[in-house]
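Pilot study result, target chain (141 residues):
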Amino acid sequence: MKKFEFRLQKLFEIRDRKEKEIKNKLGYLIKVQKQEEEEKKILINDLKRKDYNYRKNFLFSDFNISEALSHENFSRVNCKKIQNLEIKKKDMDLKIKRIKKNLLEASIQKKVVEKIKDKKIKEYSQDLKKREDFLYGGTGL
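Predicted structure:
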C-alpha cells in the first residue's frame, strides 16, 4: 500500500506562506504604529512641560522677549510634528485595516485547503482500514 500523498500540498504550503507573510507585515506595521504613538506622547509631554515652565517664568519673573520667541517657535514646531504623527497614524490605521482584511482572506483560503486535506486523510484512513479488513478478515487474524 502506498503512502498518503496530498496532491494539493504545494497549494497548501503557498497559502500558508502567504498567510505568514501577511501576519509579519501586520506585526511590523503595528510595531511602527506603537513607536510613533510613543513618540507622540513624548512630544506632548515635552510641550506641556515647556509650556508650564514658560508660564511660571512669565508670571513670576522678568519677561524676556527672546525666551518668548523661543517658546513660540518650540511650540509651533512640536505642534506640527504632533499633527504629522496624527496624520501618519490615520494612514497607518487604514493600512492595518486593509492588511487585516487580506489576512482574513488568506486564512480562509488556507483553511479551505486544510479541510480538504483533513477530508482526504480521513478517506485514505477509511480505505486503508477497509483493505486491512478485507485482507485479514477471512484469515481469522
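One observation from the pilot: Residues 135 and 141 are 10 Å apart (CA to CA). A full batch analysis is planned for the follow-on phase.
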